[in-house]
Amino acid sequence: MLKKTLLICWIIFLSLPSEGNAWGFFAHQRINRLAVFTLPEEMMKFYKYYIDYLTENAVNPDKRRYAVEGEAPRHYIDVDIYDPLYGDSAVYKLPRYWKQAVEAHGEDSLQAYGIVPWHIQTMKYRLTEAFKRRDAQAILNISADLGHYIGDANVPLHTTENYNGQMSNQIGIHGFWESRLPELFSDNYDFFVGQAQYLENTQLSAWDAVIQAHEALDSVLRFERVLTERFSADKKYTIDERNGLTIKTYSRDFSKAYHDMLAGQVERRMKASIKMIGNMWLTCWIDAGQPDLEALLDKDIRKELDEELQKQKEEWKKQQLKSREHESFAPIMPSQNTTCCQASPYLSYYGEKIKQIKAKK
Ligand SMILES: [Zn+2]
User: Could you report the per-residue pLDDT of 146-200, keeping only the tens digit for each?
Assistant: First the structure.
């Protein structure tokens, strides 16, 4: 009986980290949230006001993956499928623009093997249009979705046919890399990525993400194989409780050894995602003519927020917090060991105030 239960749980475990579920919910949410802090002041107030929305909805595209036709291929691109056609490095040679790609390979093939870099460009266009229309709801929905797809494009296992190690006897590696590792270790990452920057060519930037992710793929697969030879099966895996289910997952020791061997790779991919999301949101806003986002906030909320922020700034001054960022409403990055969704004391204070204002209304 026990054996049968374990077998069922093992199947659940193996089926969980499926393609299209990049970064896991936890990491997607953290990435979208932190991208807000890369934005310039003119965008920051609007995005910060809706930071919980952008965080929670970071996983919408995965949630609708099975419900919406055509959704699945937007999350990945199996670039190695094309290698025989382009020598061994299709990722550097595939047509960058959708129209040329369709001419070269036909839309059916493209959809079959994934379209993430091109879909990012589609979303870029949609977000720019939403800014032009001053459509707050669309700006938020599309920003959240775009953040998700950019996160996906930065995941090495989203650039390969062997997305869950199913072709190399490494089944489960997808969720291992993108969910288990960030959950165990990302509290200690340094997420400082600086200010968002304007992107001259968003389509090529989307491809840069895919290229960098794909270049990391060899290590992702190889290091897991190397360590599997060093760990016996009972040391490699552990039995864990999750949402009332007993599941088999990678042990802490194995996870740590793998994470150490990857030498900051997961952190680098997460940071690249955060920075690129900030860059893309900023670029859409600039391309739309830099609309006044504060005007999109409800007047009463805006007034109360301004007052609260003023008070907050004065309090910080009183406490002799010398950091310039604290006083200037500039991005404040989380210190190490903060938990997700509490990027800074300043932000949590701010978040509390928003809740109070909302409750009052
Ligand atoms: Zn996804």
Answer: 999 999 999 999 999 999 999 999 999 999 999 999 999 999 999 999 999 999 9
> Which tokens sit at 167?
């072709």
Q: How far is CA 70 from CA 67, 111, 129, 184, 271, in A?
A: 9, 8, 22, 33, 28
- Report CA(144)–ligand 1 centroid distance (Å): 12
Report which of 331, 4, 356, 27 is spatially closest to residue 179, judged by C-alpha positions.
27
Distance from the CA of 70 to the center of ligand 1, in angstroms?
13
- Distance (Å, rounded) from C-alpha 170 to C-alpha 267? 22
Query: What is the CB neighbour count within 10 angstroms for residue 49?
Result: 22
Residue with tokens 């990055």: 333
DSSP tag of 176:
I
> Dihedrals φ, ψ of 332, to 5°?
-120, 120
Q: State the distance from the centre of ligand 1 to the C-alpha of 192, rounded, in angstroms.
A: 24
pLDDT digit string, tens, across residues 275-310 = 999 999 999 999 999 999 999 987 665 665 566 556
Residue-range domain boundaries for the chain: 2-297, 301-361
CA of 199 to the centre of ligand 1 (A): 23
**pTM for the model:** 0.79
Helix (H, G, I), strand (E, B) or coil at 100: helix
State whether CATH 3.20.20.70 applies to domain 2-297: no
CA distance between the termini of the chain: 56
CA 236, CA 254: separation in Å to the nearest integer? Answer: 5
Q: What whole-number distance in Å separates Cα of residue 273 and Cα of residue 192?
A: 12
The length of the chain is: 361
Q: Token digits for 70?
A: 């055509």
Residue 44 CA to ligand 1 center (angstroms) comes to 25
Q: How many angstroms is it from 189 CA to the middle of ligand 1?
A: 22
The token pair that represents 319 in the structure block: 């406490």
Q: How many Å lie between the centroid of ligand 1 and the Cα of residue 348?
A: 28
Query: Virtual CA dihedral for 202, 276, 150, 18, nearest 10 degrees?
Result: 150
